[in-house]
Amino acid sequence: MKAILKNEEEFMMNYKLLGKSGLRVSELALGTMTFGEEWGWGADKNESKKVFDFFAKEGGNFIDTANRYTEGTSEKFVGDFISTDREHFVVATKYTLFTRRDDPNFSGNHRKNMMQALDASLKRLKTDYIDLYWVHAWDFTTPEEEVLRALDDMIRAGKILYIGISDTPSWIVSRMNTIAELRGWTQFVGLQIKYSLIDRSVERELMPMARKFDIAVTPWAVIGGGILSGKYNRNKDEEGRAQVYKSINENNLKIAEVVIKVADEIGCTPSQVAINWVRQQPGVIIPIIGAKTEMQLKDNLGCLKLTLNEEQIIKLNEASKIDLGFPHTFLDSDNIRDIVFGGTYDKIENHHKS
């Protein structure tokens, strides 16, 4: 059975509800960390505009940025690009990371940093409100209730419409959404995490938690810092951003080799296979794709033209499988299931299992 290839005219995106909200977002999000050259590897404003315009032309409305991306230039570019039709776009930005070094109140999750970071983002984005505001990373110093109440206050003030949380342990996210539900505060509808065929560790806790709470997952690094594009298999001495993640090892190159073989079988690029493997995981999954050029974006959007079949998914799963560890492997073992269910496990149709 071959992968399902769609016709050229079916290139345009569909839309998904953002978790338990009613917000409609494109099935891929445009990551704008590459907008700006301050970090040494991004795109200038002209090329960034080409990337943005092509994404919008193909039906993309979900734009992801952050106050720290390229020292604020990313937000400035996005603000300029959306200005002709602000209400059409779903703009997501973030706070937490430092905006002034050596000043403890210009970083972190606390209310003071949130308010000053949000106001600065609104100015750079040239907008009155943020569609989706992310807690960028958990700081382990601010009480959960402070973060939730401050976010809820910003929503009531009309500065934010929805909230999400990124790079945070599952137990904190689940506790916060439970607190918010009990107190009538706004709950997180989005979860941003690192997820790809070369890093499936989020399948232990974060992914099941997101499905249980109906939180949309927006994975980043879905092609593993470029490893899953196959370029390091072709030239193992090539240097690039993947070096930053220290992920170029023999095992990950083997996973990339399987991705390349599946891509050759389908007649597409390895990047498209890698993105689609993430897209086809259970739950609401909206991968973040980034590009420095219009050509790179066009290649990534090509993933919308195909669907991996079950055999290909299994092949990729096997090549990249991880040990879920305790308590998952313990509870999934035959002898523990027998003790827990008394021989009736296979007779129970369990619609609660995520």
Report on the structure:
- α1 runs parallel beside α11 (294-301) and α9 packs antiparallel against α12 (310-320).
- The longest helix has 17 residues, at 250-266.
- The chain has helices at 45-57, 73-82, 111-125, 144-156, 170-183, 206-213, 231-234, 242-245, 250-266, 270-279, 294-301, 310-320, 328-332, 334-341, and strands spanning 4-5, 15-17, 24-26, 29-31, 62-64, 90-95, 130-135, 160-166, 188-192, 216-217, 288-290, 306-307.
- It has 14 helices and twelve strands.
- It has 354 residues and is an alpha/beta fold.
- Helices cover 40% and strands 13% of the residues.
- The chain has two domains: 4-321, TIM Barrel (Alpha-Beta Barrel), CATH 3.20.20.100; 323-354, no CATH class.
- The mean pLDDT is 94.
- The strands form three sheets. Strands 10-9-8-7-6-5-4-11 form an eight-stranded parallel beta sheet, covered by helices on one side.
- It starts with a strand and ends in a 13-residue tail after the last helix.
Tell me the layout of helices and strands:
Layout: E1 4-5, E2 15-17, E3 24-26, E4 29-31, H1 45-57, E5 62-64, H2 73-82, E6 90-95, H3 111-125, E7 130-135, H4 144-156, E8 160-166, H5 170-183, E9 188-192, H6 206-213, E10 216-217, H7 231-234, H8 242-245, H9 250-266, H10 270-279, E11 288-290, H11 294-301, E12 306-307, H12 310-320, H13 328-332, H14 334-341
Parallel strand pairs: 4-5, 4-11, 5-6, 6-7, 7-8, 8-9, 9-10
Antiparallel strand pairs: 1-12, 2-3
Helix pairs in contact: 1-11, 9-10, 9-12
